[in-house]
Known about the structure:
The chain has 18 helices and no strands. The chain is mainly α and 413 residues long.
Amino acid sequence: MSQTETTPLPLWTRDFTIITLGSVVSMVGNSLSGFAMSLMVLDYTSSPLFYAIYVMAFTFPQIAVPIFSGALLDRFSRKKTIYTLDFISAALYLASGVLLSTGWFSYPVFALLVFLFGTIQSVYQVAYQSFYPMLITKGNYSKAYSIASILESVSVFIVPLSTFIYNRMGIAPLMMANSVCFFTAAVMEKQIRAEEKYVKAEKGGGIRRMLSDTREGFTYLKSERGLFFIALYFLFSSLGGGVSNVALLPYLKSSYPGGEYYYLLIGLFMMAGRSITSVWHYRHTLPTERKFTIALTVYLLIALSEGTMLFMPLAVMFAMSFASGCLGVTSYTIRVSATQSYVPDEKKGRFNGAFNVLSVLGSLIGQGAAGILSEIMDLRFVMLLTQMVVFTAALVIIKGHKKDVSAIYNRQQ
């Protein structure tokens, strides 16, 4: 028996450490500016509908762009794509910060800028999702994605600082700080040495080949029944998330004095739940044969929690948010580690592109529905209605196709 078979491979390799540290830096920057941008739009418009349009401007390009970027990123360097987009983002945030520091603001122009940020993010997301698993050593997928969840959770604790700075100094310093973070992350990501062998095998073919690869991404998803039903369910799950993204902040700001701080507290409790559970997942492994059952239970509980949360007193909302964070990171760890270890490296870009298209489509539908329904319906009932749709989707799609989905979830990674 070889040493490789008896001794687990180390997770914290040079490349994995670099990509992790780079993620921390960029997440901190986005936490500083992202929430402040939402507050600025609400402060200028005082309208859930205009806020929904702003959110949709960021989300909309994430439908079409991943269709093409997924195919391209199976042919070209994902590493170069990642650090190039970070350099571009650094320049855009710096220019935006300088412009906003003059006191200028135009909602239509700002919406176009956010649309551009969404376009960049959509390409970056597919590139990162497809490159990150290539830096994980065999047998360490669950641990690696637990770390990713921990980092995402910790970065959210920066948001209160962002709110404090925004309320006293405006948004310009936050945009400039994000520029520095993106630049730093790009410099770090350039140092990754992992060889992208698939690039040599896939290079060439032009536009016609790219379109063919795009179709292949959806064909591959359709041919793998387990992956298809997982992606289909997350279309509905993202619909519920899109509604929550639009409904929660406007509801709290209109219902409670200083509602944005209650929104932050809800987020902090959720991230605390994610952080604690992520640490648990890093140290422990879920029973392989029970992952499907755990995932289905989590999907149902999250839908029930998010659908009823706004009807509860604030203290109960905080507790439910903590529980949702615990459940959400468990869902994420099971799904991502299972699917990314299952899909071959040369198809990861196409799969992630197709998966992201479905997820973003659901999110966009949810955001638009929330914006429109907010004009005629209490936001609490908007969230309840959509989460009941998500609950039903979990039963029909995931439980209804247990054999196919469990073949992906209940396997050694």
